[in-house]
Structures are given as structure tokens and as C-alpha cells.
Automatic annotation (TrEMBL):
It comes from Neptunicella marina. It comes from the Bacteria. AMP binds at T31, R36, K57, L58, V59, G85, F86, P87, R88, Q92, R156, R167. It catalyses: AMP + ATP = 2 ADP. It is an enzyme of class 2 (transferase). Keywords: ATP-binding, Cytoplasm, Kinase, Nucleotide biosynthesis, Nucleotide-binding, Transferase. ATP binds at G10, A11, G12, K13, G14, T15, R123, V132, Y133, K200. This is Adenylate kinase. GO terms for biological process: AMP salvage.
Length: 214
């Protein structure tokens, strides 16, 4: 199964990706996590991406398309994958079509901006795995520690309120047009388009996704 998770920053893509990976046995491809790993490793890609990400802007299509193309070609993606945070622009979506990468399901997470701003202030992440928590809505078993490894949780540098607002503006301008794009593809029978209310509790969103995907 090939799935695209489409939604604003903080809509819950990474959280539900954890659930879907376990349920369907397909890998999560999070371009955000891949970029953060590159920053940590100090690679050329990481150096180029850091400033852009800290400002809440998008990394160039060219860099991202190359990154995803390479990742999708790996063995573990043979039976499907979960795209989290890609595509994020019309040229990125067009690149998938040009490279013959079809998808089965596109899921849009519907969450209003004001909910997102308040959510982000409580997010904590485990950098190595990409596991996501929230101090109130999805707390770890031990405060400040990852459930699996017990390692320290951190706050993402782009989760400050002014950066979150910039990321939301970028989302509305550059990514939201993909909703119309994929609705049109669904009408042509190329994929299925679903919209999920991302404001419900984490488990309820997971249940909705499971019934949509079968
Ligand atoms: P990326 O890492 O993709 O960030 P994002 O899209 O902004 O999304 P987030 O990871 O912030 O949110 P999410 O939807 O995964 O929400 P989460 O599950 O964590 O990208 C970061 C940057 O990298 C970009 O700004 C850009 O610079 C660059 N980049 C990445 N991809 C790119 C691309 N394709 N092209 C160009 N540039 C790219 O949840 C958020 C919080 O809410 C958590 O605390 C969680 O516990 C909580 N929560 C989740 N669900 C619920 C719920 N139902 N109820 C209550 N709380 C909930
Ligand atoms: Zn995420």
C-alpha cells in the first residue's frame, strides 16, 4: 500500500505514521526526519537545509525530489510506503507522476490553525526514531523520556510560535493546493482521496484511518 499523508505542520502526520507503520508493515518516509538526520550528521544536505528549516520555509524541490527518489528505490519500499511531509508542492507531486510513482491513498488531515499553534508548544520528539509525543495529549510513560529507548526527548527548534505561524502560512500557500490536485486525481481514478478530522483524540483518528484504508 502506498499512502500520502497530507496536512499542515502539527496536524498529526508523524503521530499517525507510527500507527500505520505498525498496522500495515510499511516504512514511513518523513522528509522532515530525513533532513533533521542530515543536519545532525553534518552532511552537505544538512548544512543547506538547516537555515531554511529554522526559518520555517521549504527546502528546494530539487534537493527533496532527489532525496525521496533515492529512498523509494530501496528494498524495504517494494511493498509500499507512507509518505509523511512529501509531496509539499505541485512540482514535487508532478515529479512523482513523471517518475511513474503511483499512490493508492491520499489522506488529508483537517485541523484549524489555532489548534495547531497550541499543540506545537507541547510537542516533544525522540530525534533518533522520529517518535512524537505531547506533554498533555500523548504523554510518554516517563516524563521527558522516550517509551522505547528511555532516551531524552527534545523540543524541535522550529516549534517556536512565530516559526509555527510562518510554517502555517507556507502550508496554505504552497502545500494546500495539493488537496485540489489529488481530488482531481481521485476523480480520474488514479488514487483514493480521504479527509480525516485531525482534531479528534489520537486513537479516534487512528480508528478512522483504519476504516478508510481497510
Ligand atoms: P516536517 O518535519 O515534515 O514538519 P511538518 O510538516 O511541519 O509537520 P510536523 O512534523 O510539524 O507535524 P506532524 O503533522 O507530523 O504532527 P505530529 O504528529 O508531530 O518538516 C519540517 C521542515 O522540513 C519543513 O518546515 C521544511 O523546511 C522541511 N521539509 C520537510 N519536507 C519537505 C518537503 N517535502 N519539501 C520542502 N521542505 C521540506 O503532531 C504534532 C503534535 O500534536 C505532537 O505533539 C503530537 O503528540 C500532537 N498530536 C498529534 N495528533 C494529535 C491529536 N489527534 N490530538 C492532540 N494532539 C495530537
Ligand atoms: Zn512530522
Amino acid at each position: 500500500m502506498r499512502i500520502i499523508l497530507l496536512g499542515a505542520p502539527g496536524a498529526g502526520k508523524g503521530t499517525q505514521a507510527q500507527f500505520l507503520m505498525g498496522k500495515y508493515g510499511i516504512p514511513q518516509i518523513s522528509t522532515g526526519d530525513m533532513l533533521r538526520a542530515a543536519i545532525k550528521a553534518g552532511t552537505e544536505l544538512g548544512l543547506a537545509a538547516k537555515k531554511v528549516m529554522d526559518e520555517g520555509k521549504l527546502v528546494s524541490d530539487e534537493l527533496i525530489i532527489g532525496l525521496v527518489k533515492e529512498r523509494i528505490a530501496q528494498d524495504d519500499c517494494k511493498n509500499g510506503f507512507l509518505l509523511d511531509g512529501f509531496p509539499r508542492t505541485i512540482p514535487q507531486a508532478d515529479a512523482m507522476v513523471e517518475n511513474g510513482v503511483a499512490v493508492d491513498h491520499v489522506i488529508e488531515f483537517d485541523v484549524p490553525d489555532d489548534v495547531i499553534v497550541s499543540r506545537m508548544s507541547g510537542r516533544r520528539v525522540h530525534s533518533a526514531s522520529g517518535r512524537v509525543y505531547h506533554v498533555e495529549y500523548n504523554p510518554p510513560k516517563v516524563e521527558g523520556k522516550d517509551d522505547v529507548t528511555g532516551e531524552e526527548l527534545v523540543i524541535r527548534p522550529d516549534d517556536q510560535e512565530d516559526t509555527v505561524r510562518k510554517r502555517l502560512a507556507v502550508y496554505h500557500e504552497q502545500t494546500e493546493p495539493l488537496v485540489t490536485y489529488y481530488k482531481a486525481q481521485a476523480e480520474d481514478g488514479k488514487c483514493q482521496f480521504h479527509s480525516v478530522k485531525g482534531t479528534k483524540p489520537v486513537e479516534e483518528v487512528s480508528q478512522s484511518l483504519a476504516s478508510m484504508l481497510g
